[in-house]
Fold:
Amino acid sequence: MTLTPDELKADLTLEQLKELVGLVEYDAANDPFPVTAQDAVCFVVGNATQTATFYQLALGMELEAYRGPENGCRDSKSYVLRSGSARFVFTGGVTPDSPVLDHHRKHGDGVVDLAMEVPDVDRCIDHARAMGATILVEPHDESDEHGTVRIAAIATYGETRHTLVDRSRYTGPYLPGYVAATTKVARREGPAGSGRPKRLFQAVDHCVGNVELGRMDEWVTFYNKVLGFTNMAEFIGDDIATDYSALMSKVVASGNHRVKFPLNEPAIAKKKSQIDEYLEFYDGAGCQHIALATNDILRSVDILRDNGIEFLDTPDSYYDDPELRARIGEVRVPIEELKRRGILVDRDEDGYLLQIFTKPMGDRPTVFYEFIERHGSLGFGKGNFKALFEAIEREQEARGNL
Ligand SMILES: [Fe+2]
Structure:
């Protein structure tokens, strides 16, 4: 396994990256749909200009490319931002008849594309077609003065898609049609001598999809058959049920675990599941949260809070519970440091992880972020689900949606 060009931008060694996002070795020879890595998380938002500035100011991301009316894209603006190996693209509608605005009217701010870098677009599409996937964009070349990309797209849950891109013959800042852009936002100083600010996150760890009641297994099968993803972990029923709300979740991953997609569906409980609330306000299936890997979650959370990012509260009882203390054992910081920041901790047979969840980022109670620091654990915080969901329900109740 070697670092991808995007991963090299995170200034991490392969060993550090493996630990950070839980990578595993695998043999790509028999993979019908080899995936190199996640390429980008693409959002449609109500105001891409301000969203791009917000992500630079509050999440410390760097602007690196732009496309809009000034360079030939009449009806929308897109800003490409980076933090380490993670790339986000924010698109907003410019003209009143822009289809981007139709999408936004229905779904609000949200993720439209979980793009993946693949070494052979045509091979992936041939396999996807044979397995019955919907091909949204047929493989084709796009070129500019920086070279050529091969690109295609397949449909997944809701109105979400997976663009597949081979950028091995391309050296531009993002894709043909985009021009290089740079951040004008002033940065905090990084570690002494580094010459650059320290990032708040280094990589995308996983992207979670919420799908309709009874459809989770259908989408797990889709990822198994079409993308050759394997099942990682499974949470069902009581694992993540509280008194009022419940969900079921399964996780699929690419061979090397660079791309990990947990899939949730609501489960029947006394009151409305948080997944039902998402499905109602997003108007269908969609991406629920994106987990961002950091190697210093305490520092990241302190700065993000200072920058105005709001996190879910964790009850003090979570930390004072002797069962929790026994379950998690020794972690790298005193538990009081975690309690002060509301950071959750979970341990499994491979190690432990620290994690925290933001409140929804937009106006609708839909997409949010997780920040995660892995120490050997390849899990998703199963032991925290109940404590977390009880915290989410208090928020849901405050919005009158429980
Ligand atoms: Fe997560």
